[in-house]
Amino acid sequence: MTVHPIDYRYGSEDMRRIWDEENKLQKLLDVEAALARAHAKLGNIPEESARVISERANTKWVRLERVKEIEAEIHHDIMAVVKALSEVCGEHGKYVHLGATSNDIIDTANALLIKESLEIVKSDLREIRSILKNLAMEHKYTVCIGRTHGQHAVPTTYGMKFAIWLDEIQRHLDRIDELEERILVGQMSGAVGTMASFGDKGPEIQRLVMEDLGLKPARISNQIIQRDVYAELMMVLALIASTLDKIALEVRNLQRTEILEISEPFGKRQVGSSTMPHKRNPIRSEKVSGLARVLYSNVIPALLNNPLWHERDLTNSSVERVILPESFVLLDEMLKSMKKVLSGLEFFPENIKRNLYMTNNLIMAEPLMLKLTEKGMGRQEAHELVRRLAMRAFRENRDLIAVARENEDVRKFLTEDDFESLKPENYIGMAPLIVDNVIAYITEKERKEGL
Q: HSE (CB half, 13 Å, CA atoms) of 298?
């Protein structure tokens, strides 16, 4: 029986597999095996014991069902793993978990799970980056209306829209690189973090274990990796979700029937409504925006997990069992949905142009004002004059440039060529160059990544 939608509806098999019970158990066993190997290298236990423990520290030997059976009896999940592993190691089982405390195993295993998960997130972000880069190049000169406060402002380009998202996606990749330096750390420091259980070999045992597992050793811990690190992870995941939410929201708005400049892809046999056969709803984008709300909400418990009683308590544990897999699986679903939306984006050029000219050139008020200023009229005088002309054009439902042509004050400064130049397509400033600069920056990033 499944309850949570991440078990059957959301996320890829690859991401769900990372956080399923079998893989989580395997990561705990991997840490136990690495600890045994470190002890053997330092002469603390026989090499044969480390070999047997390493050989049998896998879910073929240590069955999940047996671990659960032991936990039901003793009510301690990590000790259940230790007992189950010890059972299958025979006489060598007496060396399992030597000197370690539960969170040495849990937190180090979590780092391994997070490492695998972030690889998938980074891969999806790079794919989205590539899609947006191509869209930005393709639509560098696709002029459209810019909107502020939900109102028509001045022209922009679809290349600008895509380049803004592209630049933001790159920042998330940079953030993950920086985050990994802090979160892909493990510990092997014993109760309250003093390493007393390992004697004077504690630092070397920790170094060997983390080197074995491909992690960095924590500089200091008090039985747990400090949860400010986990909180930072959750905030970065939520921040990525907010960008996907931002993109999805713009797609949803631009797909409104009365706007319809772009649309997310719609399958040939896709059904939009159970009662209205004509509907083409932006369901992927809506799902992205909806799931983002869950990721936002998971940041608060992550922050609350940082302050614990004294050296530690257990209030963080139950929370992390929920928010870590949930956030990664839901973000995985959001990323993959966004790839589908952006790679199949449909454009409606006639509507883009219609909306650009919808206000009868009211959007050319700023360039008209600046043209008057360029020709010698004072800026404030020009602003007030154009404001009055714009209000008149709006009331009379006429073209602003036509109304301006009739004004004697305007004609003192502007020629017919000036009026002819006042077209939305001519007022995109340095937009193509700005887009080119972003694309060049991303291309250099890709080159450094070897892509």
A: 30
Closest to 212 measured CA to CA, from 89, 67, 111, 92: 111
Rounded Cα distance between 229 and 222, Å, is: 14
Positive or negative: CA dihedral 33, 34, 37, 38: negative
What count of Cα atoms within 13 Å lies in the side-chain half-sphere of residue 259?
Answer: 17
180 residue type, one letter: E
Query: 406-431, pLDDT tens digit by residue?
Result: 999 999 999 999 999 999 999 999 99
DSSP, collapsed to helix, strand or coil, labels residue 451 as coil
273 is catalytic: yes
Produce one character per residue of 77-91: b if its CB has 16 or more CB atoms within 10 Å, e if not.
Answer: bbebbbbbbbebbee
**How many angstroms separate the CA atoms of 406 and 403, rounded?**
5
Question: Which pLDDT value is given to residue 396?
Answer: 96
CA distance 85 to 93: 7
The CA-to-CA distance between both ends of the chain, in Å, stands at: 42
Catalytic entry in 149, 274, 278, 310: 149
- Give the bridge partners for 128, in sequence order: none
C-beta separation of 213 from 186 below 8 A:
yes
Identified catalytic residue from 4, 76, 123, 273: 273
149 in active site: yes
- DSSP secondary structure string for all residues of 58-90: STTTS-HHHHHHHHHHH--HHHHHHHHHHHHTG
d(CA 285, CA 344): 12
- For the chain, what is the total number of helices (H) and then of strands (E)? 18, 6
Count of other CB atoms within 10 angstroms of residue 410: 23
DSSP of 334-374, one letter per residue?
HHHHHHHHHHT-EE-HHHHHHHHTTTTTGGGHHHHHHHHHH
The type of residue at 40 is A
Closest CA to 67 of 22, 1, 3, 103: 22
Query: What is the mean pLDDT of the segment spanning 196-206?
Result: 97
Packing angle, helices 21-41 and 202-213, rounded to 10: 130
The pTM of the full predicted model, rounded to 2 decimals, is: 0.94
